[in-house]
Amino acid sequence: MTSLAQLRRTALSLPGTAERSTGPGTKSFTVRDKRFAALGKDGHVQLHLPAADADEVLAAHPTAERLTRGTTPIGVRLPIGDINGQQLNHWVRRAWLAHAPKRLAAQAQAADTAAAGEVGDLPRAIGGPATRALANVGITTLAQVAELSEAELLAMHGVGPKAVRLLGEALVATGHRPKG
């Protein structure tokens, strides 16, 4: 079952995202102070999506309803338990892309195609998911990796213990000093 933890993990993996409590039991996720997703105390997730994306969600989920501000459509609202984790990840990212500054959105879209061994001097051995996770937040060099702690690296969706170990070895081999 999809939960606030899944929503939080997905939203906070996107660059520039902040989490805010907007009332008792209510969480919202913003990028540069623009809300793109929220979860109300009633267990309904709100996704601020462009009209075409909102129409897709409405067609795929019978329990979804159009989210409006006054009479202006701004997205969809549906019970979080009625959407699987993969679908939630996709739609949260689409909502984020619709509200992120152009530079951040372009950086994240470029990271989608990042291949292991082809981004800056990041080692190929860390694999595609870790390479894309790092590129997604603008990290393309070992010097930038050296500025992050192990905990900060592990907090990135796609960067696991093996990638952290390999990055640490690459940092030492190239004369960089890992943080912490």
Per DSSP, the total helix count is 8
* C-alpha termini separation: 36 Å
C-alpha Rg, in Å? 18 Å
CATH topology of the largest domain, which one?
Aspartate Aminotransferase, domain 1
Major sheet: order of its strands? 1-2-3-4-6-5
The helical percent reads 40-55%
What's the CATH architecture name of the largest domain? Alpha-Beta Complex
Spans of 5+ residues with little confidence (pLDDT < 50)? Answer: none
Mean pLDDT: 91
What about the largest sheet? 6 strands, antiparallel
User: What structural class do you assign from the helix and strand content?
Assistant: alpha+beta
InterPro entries: YjbR/MT2646/Rv2570-like
Protein name: Helix-hairpin-helix domain-containing protein
Pfam families: YjbR
Biased composition (Polar residues): 19-28
Q: Secondary-structure map with pairings?
A:
Blueprint: H1 4-12, E1 17-23, E2 26-31, E3 34-39, E4 44-47, H2 51-60, E5 65-69, E6 72-79, H3 85-99, H4 102-111, H5 128-136, H6 142-145, H7 150-154, H8 161-173
Helix pairs in contact: 1-3, 4-5
Can you describe this structure?
- There is one protein chain.
- The chain is α+β, with helices and mostly antiparallel strands.
- The chain folds into two domains: 4-108, Aspartate Aminotransferase, domain 1 (Alpha-Beta Complex); 114-173, DNA polymerase, domain 1 (Orthogonal Bundle), CATH 1.10.150.
- The chain has eight helices and six strands.
- It has helices at residues 4-12, 51-60, 85-99, 102-111, 128-136, 142-145, 150-154, 161-173, and strands at 17-23, 26-31, 34-39, 44-47, 65-69, 72-79.
- A six-stranded antiparallel β-sheet has the order 1-2-3-4-6-5.
- α1 (4-12) packs across α3 (85-99).
- The mean pLDDT is 91.
- Residues 19-28 have a biased composition (Polar residues).
- Residues 1-28 are annotated as: Disordered.
